[in-house]
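Hi V.,

Quick status before I head out on leave. The structure for the redesign project is tokenized and pasted below; the design run finished overnight.
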């Protein structure tokens, strides 16, 4: 499904000269306090409809690393190429006969890139298998991941943090973001430990001793060991003062995560499997018994942008080439996105796209290019879907802690990496106008730019 719309006004920014006006005093002062030089930031504030010259343009044609702001291109292209009602399906196949609650054959689960096959939806999928009268699988559970190219990835390669959920790699059969959620609940003089989803073959202590320490560094106080895929250990204590807390973690052995999660959930439902859980292909000609359907893309895009979910963005990115070329590949999706960009924005070149999430040191885009993308989206019938997906300043998502008078007046996608910090999106001004705002810092002290961004949002909103 492709949405076409006029972009006559959007291209106005391309022919405007770079203005040399000074920065707003409050923004300039915030940069000075942060010890950030002016040439470390790129700033642009322009009418969302492209009908007037920019209110502010500073280094807007310098290519910078956007970090997670890159998700704007992935999500808007996804909405435009696939349609907001697009949904992923996960087909389940039964090979053999069912007799007395036992499947005499194999059960196949074929991944098609669903980013939202979370623990509760995996539970529903397996309950539907049981609804077919199956309690025991006498054959194998076969996982078909062939929809995406399989490229071995080191989860710690990007920043040395392999247990951070944001480093989870994409997978045609992605279950629960390849992460576990550990919950600690003080009860009966101890902290009860609960892990979701249940993981086959993973030993977890049922309780941890309580302490009277403050809650300042409760994770450090647990002295946790997550390195063994078969065992989680805690050598420390949990502070009673914390109440109930949760700790999301990427699983230590991501390649075996899906197998362990499916078997663990199946066993928790009272099912058994006498064969093995292995990877393979669905036999040609086998018809699905049923298909598990994801939420619509418009809802998925809200999760991606509100909370800057990297692996969900990469799932969508790979789906672009899966839908057009029959298999999801990184280079194939870059090609799809580059072609879309050139056609929609009417330009001969495109930014340097990475993996769709912004989790990249090589991705580059200019503030002018981002503004043109946001102007294009503003003129599109898909505008409500994209804007609704963006965090609201001072209200929700990754912008919930924003301070300043602009709270509630801006929908902005954030981006943050080592040496990168910024926002891009829309500001509702006092005059009733909507502005596109882009502010990105590339500098070793980029994280210090936040007060300057808050000042810029306030300034953009105050246009009377």
């Amino acid at each position: 499904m492709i949405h076409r719309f006029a972009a006559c006004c959007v291209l106005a920014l391309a022919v405007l000269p770079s203005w040399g006006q000074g920065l707003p005093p409050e923004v300039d002062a915030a940069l000075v306090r942060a010890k950030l030089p002016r040439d470390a930031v790129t700033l642009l504030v322009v009418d969302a409809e492209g009908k007037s010259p920019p209110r502010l343009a500073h280094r807007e044609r310098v290519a910078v690393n956007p970090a997670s702001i890159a998700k704007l291109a992935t999500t808007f292209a996804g909405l435009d190429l696939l349609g907001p009602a697009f949904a992923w399906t996960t087909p389940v196949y039964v090979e053999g006969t069912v007799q007395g609650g036992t499947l005499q054959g194999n059960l196949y689960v074929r991944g098609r890139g669903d980013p939202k096959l979370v623990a509760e939806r995996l539970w529903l999928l397996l309950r539907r298998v049981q609804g077919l009268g199956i309690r025991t699988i006498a054959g194998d559970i076969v996982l078909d991941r062939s929809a995406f190219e399989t490229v071995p990835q080191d989860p710690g390669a990007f920043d040395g943090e392999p247990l951070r959920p944001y480093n989870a790699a994409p997978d045609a059969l992605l279950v629960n973001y390849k992460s576990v959620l550990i919950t600690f609940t003080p009860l009966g003089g101890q902290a009860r430990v609960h892990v979701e989803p249940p993981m086959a073959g993973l030993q977890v202590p049922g309780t941890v001793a309580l302490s009277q320490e403050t809650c300042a560094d409760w994770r450090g106080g647990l002295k946790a060991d997550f390195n063994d895929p078969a065992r989680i250990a805690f050598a420390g204590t949990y502070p009673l003062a914390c109440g109930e807390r949760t700790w999301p973690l990427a699983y230590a052995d991501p390649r075996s995560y899906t197998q362990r999660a499916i078997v663990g959930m199946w066993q928790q439902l009272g099912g058994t499997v006498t064969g093995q859980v292995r990877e393979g292909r669905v036999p040609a000609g086998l018809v699905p018994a049923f298909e598990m359907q994801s939420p619509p893309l418009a809802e998925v895009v809200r999760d991606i942008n509100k909370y800057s979910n990297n692996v969900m963005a990469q799932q969508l990115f790979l789906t672009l080439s899966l839908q057009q070329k029959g298999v999801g590949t990184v280079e194939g999706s870059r090609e799809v996105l580059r072609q879309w960009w050139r056609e929609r924005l009417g330009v001969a070149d495109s930014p340097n796209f990475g993996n769709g999430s912004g989790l990249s040191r090589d991705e580059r885009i200019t503030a002018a290019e981002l503004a043109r993308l946001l102007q294009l989206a503003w003129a599109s019938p898909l505008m409500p879907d994209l804007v609704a997906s963006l965090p609201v300043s001072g209200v929700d998502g990754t912008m919930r802690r924003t301070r300043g008078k602009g709270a509630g007046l801006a929908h902005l996608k954030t981006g943050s990496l080592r040496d990168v910090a910024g926002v891009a999106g829309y500001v509702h001004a006092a005059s009733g106008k909507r502005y596109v705002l882009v502010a990105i810092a590339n500098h070793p002290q980029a994280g210090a730019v936040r007060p300057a961004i808050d000042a810029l949002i306030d300034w953009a909103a105050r246009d009377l």
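Above is the designed sequence. The longest strand covers residues 89-99.

G. will cover questions while I'm gone.

Best,
W.
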